[in-house]
Amino acid sequence: ASTRPDLGDIKTLEQFILEQQDRFPHSTGAFSRLLRDISLAAKIVNRDMRKAGLIDIYGSTGETNVQGEVQQKMDALAHREFVLALRRGGECCLIGSEEHAEAIPLDTSSEGDGKYIVLLDPLDGSSNIDVCVSVGTIFSIYRLPDEYDEDEPDLDAALQPGTEQIAAGYVVYGSSTMMVYTTGNGVNGFTLDTSIGEFLLSHPDLTTPKTGRIFSINAGYYHSFEDGLCDYLDWLQEYDENDPNRPAKTRYIGSFVSDFHRNLLKGGIYMYPATQSSPEGKLRLMYEANPMAWIAEQAGGRATDGHTRIMEKSPTKLHQRTPLFIGSEDMVRRAEAFLQGD
Ligand code: AHG
Ligand code: MN
Ligand code: MN
Ligand code: MN
């Protein structure tokens, strides 16, 4: 018997978006075209990623980005592919990217409506590229507020709280390539079938377990964590005959997208707390914490900075960082209780 689903069983990302369109408040088709542009860039990055050892994109550009990080060639390539796709599509008027100090206004004279703002981590986990470990892309989409003109969008238009997002998603370039996103009606996952160049619906209505046995944190910084967090980590690793989730298992890839995706499916918590070298944590609010927080919440999980809901934080800078505790609700709540000394 054939193992391939017959044509009746598969649903492409485009078909799914069009189906959702009549449920979407701005069903002008512009949003569908914007997601098409993002998925095109993801396919191009995936193509180049899968042969990174064979073309000259290993290693660094020799530049230091606004984060103070040595920019990897793949960071720059992914940034360029997403900017090009969004510029060609014409639906986006302003991009905020980890790899560019200032927000980038796009000329919207082309056919698009130019009513959307895209915040982007073009390549997440870039320290893993040269060693063949999975990496990702994260995107967060806002509408341009009516008081702004899409021909000269004020850069502040990008600084909206996470609760204003109209879509949030990620691509994980792992053992397979998947796109997972939400528009506020649940979370859906699509797997790239490279033989036909389409993202196909593979994980409809994704939800995350209320609790789990996996915790993801860079334990190397243990001695710079606040006491409550050390108490939580110690508690997690104690044997408890009445708790099947303790001792918990540690899994840390060093790619937020990959750690997040595994924990979303299996249950778990990812933590990037304040440390001595990163007193505000390391992950960026606008294009890492906010989009993943919305996905986590839409899947039944939770995302805070240890005290405040991530999506309610008021941004002041494009690249501001935030401590992040995200994943299964019971695990995040337990971590908060330890942090607050309850
Ligand atoms: P990016 O590659 O986009 O700069 O993000 C890297 C982040 C995140 O993906 C990962 O979980 C974290 O940095 C790892 O940081 P440490 O090496 O300090 O653990
Ligand atoms: Mn980086
Ligand atoms: Mn990142
Ligand atoms: Mn990045």
TrEMBL record:
Cofactor(s), names only, from the UniProt record: Mg(2+)
Family, similarity comment: Belongs to the FBPase class 1 family.
Residues binding Mg(2+) 1, per UniProt: E98, D121, L123
Binding site for substrate: D124, G125, S126, S127, N218, Y252, K282
Classification via PANTHER family: FRUCTOSE-1,6-BISPHOSPHATASE-RELATED (PTHR11556), SEDOHEPTULOSE-1,7-BISPHOSPHATASE, CHLOROPLASTIC (PTHR11556:SF35)
Residues reported to bind Mg(2+) 2: D121, D124, E288
Main location: cytoplasm
Superkingdom classification of source: Bacteria
EC number from the UniProt entry: 3.1.3.11
This protein's GO CC annotations: cytosol
Catalytic activity: beta-D-fructose 1,6-bisphosphate + H2O = beta-D-fructose 6-phosphate + phosphate
Protein name: Fructose-1,6-bisphosphatase class 1
Cofactor descriptive note: Binds 2 magnesium ions per subunit.
Subcellular location field: Cytoplasm
Pathway connected to this protein: Carbohydrate biosynthesis
Example GO BP: fructose 6-phosphate metabolic process
Family annotation (NCBIfam families): PRK09293.1-1
Any GO MF annotation of the entry: fructose 1,6-bisphosphate 1-phosphatase activity
Lineage, opening ranks: Bacteria, Pseudomonadati, Rhodothermota, Rhodothermia, Rhodothermales
Pfam families: FBPase (PF00316), FBPase_C (PF18913)
Gene3D superfamilies linked: 3.40.190.80, Fructose-1,6-Bisphosphatase, subunit A, domain 1
InterPro entries membership: FBPase_C_dom (IPR044015), FBPase_class-1 (IPR000146), FBPase_N (IPR033391), FBPtase (IPR028343)
Self-association state and partner proteins as the record states: Homotetramer.
Record domain Fructose-1-6-bisphosphatase class 1 C-terminal: where: 209-339
Domain Fructose-1-6-bisphosphatase class I N-terminal residue range list: 11-204
Enzyme category, top tier: hydrolase
Keywords: Carbohydrate metabolism, Cytoplasm, Hydrolase, Magnesium, Metal-binding
